[in-house]
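Format notes (please read before filing issues)

Several people have asked whether sequences and structure tokens are stored in separate files. They are not. Every record keeps both together, in the order shown below: the sequence lines, then the token lines. Line labels are part of the format and must not be stripped during preprocessing.
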Amino acid sequence: MFRLLLATAMLLPSTAIAMDLSFEWGDTPACNTGWPDVIDSPVFEVKDVPEGTQKLKFSLKDLDAPGFSHGGGTISYDAETLIDAGAFTYKGPCPPNGKHEYQWTMTALDFYGDKLGTAKAVRYFPE
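Then the structure lines:
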């Protein structure tokens, strides 16, 4: 019986909805020293966040210097679509020479901290 249920579940179409994340650098201060300051997060727009999400975890990665940790933050989520600037602090973008490509990753977490979904958004800094 278990095999029949498993086989049937594998044939059903997926109803998973992909989350969407976008952001603007906004008032992010200019920096080109390679030594970033801890600054307020930008404004984020989130869509299609899975039902049951209690928290959103954000992390920033410099795709041109992936070994450097910019950190991020975790916030409570209450079905809003705009996450205000300053919701958390992180080490801001600060490429030492020219533009770098940065990727924000947002992870939706349930009450227990289990991952419900992930979304990513990429932009250059400075633009």
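For reference, the curators noted about this record: Strands lie at 20-24, 38-40, 43-47, 55-62, 69-76, 82-83, 89-91, 100-109, 115-125. The domain at 17-125 is CATH 3.90.280.10 (Phosphatidylethanolamine-binding Protein).
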